[in-house]
Amino acid sequence: NTRTADPVSWPDLIAQQVNCDTASEAYRADPNGFTEPLRSRSGAVHRTPSGALVLLGHAECAEVLRDPRFGHGAATARDITAYGVPARSFLLTDPPDHDRQRGRVSGAFTARAGARLAPRIEQYVLDLVGKAWQRREVDVVADLARPLAASVLSDVLGLPPGYEHHFVEMAELLVRGMDPQQDTAPAARAAITRARTDFVRTFTQLLRRTPDGCGTSVIDQLARGIARKDDPVKLSEAVATCGQLIAAGYETTVGLIANGLHTLLTHPEESSVLDTTHADADAMATAVEELLRYEPPVHIAVRTALTDAQVGEVTVPRGTILTLMLNAANRDPLVYADPHRLDLRRGGRHLAFGLGPHFCLGAPLARMEAHLMLSALWSGRPELVEERVTYTFGFVARRVQRLRIRLTQRPK
Ligand code: HEM
């Protein structure tokens, strides 16, 4: 969610590299329909005429994600977030500065913090699915996944009670505004601008308040850091961290739940394994991993070679831009037998949460939310109301725009 004064236009770059318009309906509906022909032509590493690399192999993507010779490059004084704050979020910062910034909020994502949140998440799911049962027909995106992700994110950030409704709207616009393929309609742009101003004003106020001595929320931790006498956290950096958590943790989780349920409903033969075993928590947990592999909500990561390097046998000169197609890595035939088949018992590794120093901080949270929501919904024997779905305009994140379902029995 950070741009520099001289941004690389990711969408244009990818469009040239995979030789297609990534904003097109066809690409959004089926990115693998573009990356698989590229893999057949070029193998795991595709070099474009401009010298940039597109990585399609699991091993190659994993290597780059882990190797410190690939990163985002030094921060500059000109770094500015999409919403105008002079900072660079840690998603786009290299170690060791990255580790320092990530460490400031990681306390909100520990196993203990997750265990504390679990009963609240269970309650949110129960309430939302209960309401869905009363209405029978709902949109999974708007009525279930978004309110769940927003409530959980509000808790993790430590927003004051009652703020949630406002937060949903602001977060959505904020995330939309961070996408390089954002809406260009004037009305949409104006709404995004208002949300950005609102976000910066609100979070600046929250972060400046007297810190709670022992609170574990993100805002508590950052507010303590700002108030510290020695080496205080910069306010701009703290706002950027909150912005990044919203950018990274909101639509992605919505995507996992909505894409996941859509995948289950459009693969009845495969998903029938959950009918007999849905009471078995492990079966759904394993299924969630396969859904992450099969339809990753984040399908692209980008790195730059910080020094001359290599990926496998391929020489990579310093400055080369590498686009990691996570969706393609997750379908690598060298790693997965029959990679285009959904196998909910497959389990195993995937790159949907990245790897290495930038491995998704919210992965346990996202897994928990998806597991609880999908289990509850599946027990209500959902059916698709609309067969055809369209996909969001997002460039890095990809999810079904809406997903209308009907619950046919009372969810457990
Ligand atoms: C990083 C995916 C949910 C917070 C990442 C990355 C991926 C990812 C692929 C690595 C990006 C890169 O290396 O360039 C996802 C998916 C999610 C999800 C698919 C949902 C299914 C969440 C949630 C949160 C979160 C719920 C927090 C509330 C973060 C943060 C980073 C990150 C802070 C940056 C970590 C760093 O740079 O050290 N996520 N994410 N994510 N994610 Fe997630």
Summarize the structure in words.
The two termini are 39 Å apart. The protein has helices at 10-17, 25-29, 32-42, 58-66, 97-103, 111-135, 140-157, 164-178, 186-208, 218-227, 235-249, 251-266, 268-271, 273-277, 281-294, 326-329, 363-379, and strands at residues 2-3, 45-47, 53-55, 70-71, 80-81, 137-139, 300-305, 309-311, 314-316, 321-325, 382-384, 404-407. Helix 6 packs antiparallel against helix 7 and helix 8 (164-178) crosses helix 9. The protein is built from 17 helices and 12 strands. The structure holds protoporphyrin IX containing FE (HEM). GO terms for molecular function: heme binding; iron ion binding; monooxygenase activity; oxidoreductase activity, acting on paired donors, with incorporation or reduction of molecular oxygen.
Can you identify the CATH superfamily? Answer: Cytochrome P450
Bound molecules: protoporphyrin IX containing FE
The largest β sheet comes out as: 5 strands, mixed
Number of strands: 12
Query: How many helical elements?
Result: 17
Kindly state the mean pLDDT as a whole number?
89
SSE class: alpha+beta
How far is the first residue's CA from the last residue's CA? Answer: 39 Å
Under the CATH scheme, which class? Mainly Alpha
| Percentage of residues in strands | 5-15%
Percentage of residues assigned to helices? 40-55%
Write the layout of secondary structure elements.
Layout: E1 2-3, H1 10-17, H2 25-29, H3 32-42, E2 45-47, E3 53-55, H4 58-66, E4 70-71, E5 80-81, H5 97-103, H6 111-135, E6 137-139, H7 140-157, H8 164-178, H9 186-208, H10 218-227, H11 235-249, H12 251-266, H13 268-271, H14 273-277, H15 281-294, E7 300-305, E8 309-311, E9 314-316, E10 321-325, H16 326-329, H17 363-379, E11 382-384, E12 404-407
Parallel strand pairs: 3-10
Antiparallel strand pairs: 1-5, 2-3, 4-7, 6-12, 7-10, 8-9, 11-12
The structure holds protoporphyrin IX containing FE.
Protoporphyrin IX containing FE binds at residues 90-91, 102, 153, 156, 244-245, 248-249, 252-253, 256, 297-298, 301, 352-354, 357-358, 360-362, 365-366.
